[in-house]
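A quick aside before the break. I want you to see a complete sequence-to-structure record at least once, exactly as it would be stored in a machine-readable document. Don't worry about memorizing anything.
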Amino acid sequence: MITAPIAVYRMKDVLDRELYVLIQHGSYQLVPVDHQLRLVSGEVTLYRGIERAPTFGFPGSGGATLMASAPAIWQSYARAQLRMLSDAVTSFNTIHDRTVRCETTHIQDRSRLADKIASEEGLNLVEGPGSVLWRAACESFTLVRWVAENKFGPSYVVGKTPIDNVRITTFFAGEHEVRVLDPERFEICETHGCRVQRS
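That is the input. The structure line, written in tokens, reads:
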């Protein structure tokens, strides 16, 4: 199992709103408490907008895990994640290496550093189950419903996962972005305007 350390604090902002502050390797998120009611039990609720697509595809079936069915692929993936989480600088740069915004030109956006590390660890990023796993690991979710529903909707899914199964990005554009480490530990709770296809 892959886990990522994360610190969670609770505070009030200047408007007296209750917020969670999530901090992980230099990245941070400010999330309204009422959007993360599961957090007190160690889980986060994740949302993913898919515009008008009829199907949300995500690996992990609840059956034979990739760890059991393709251990070499899973080990390559786990080694890549271990390297990316090994220190705060590498972690920050690999979680933001696909970020392309005017606010983020000062960081290593577009570097694809995570892809380089995964390839060096033997993960096939082009085809097969390793590429499916890697694409899923690079998909962004949000910690608040309105982003999935209004910005990237109207079709969206709602899921849950343990708090140590996410990597957070910094609060640049207010989209409350995170990525899932282990798709097998992510459970779909609701679908809106679409169906789920797990591979």
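Two observations worth writing down. The chain has six helices and eleven strands. The chain has one domain: 7-198. We'll return to this after the break.
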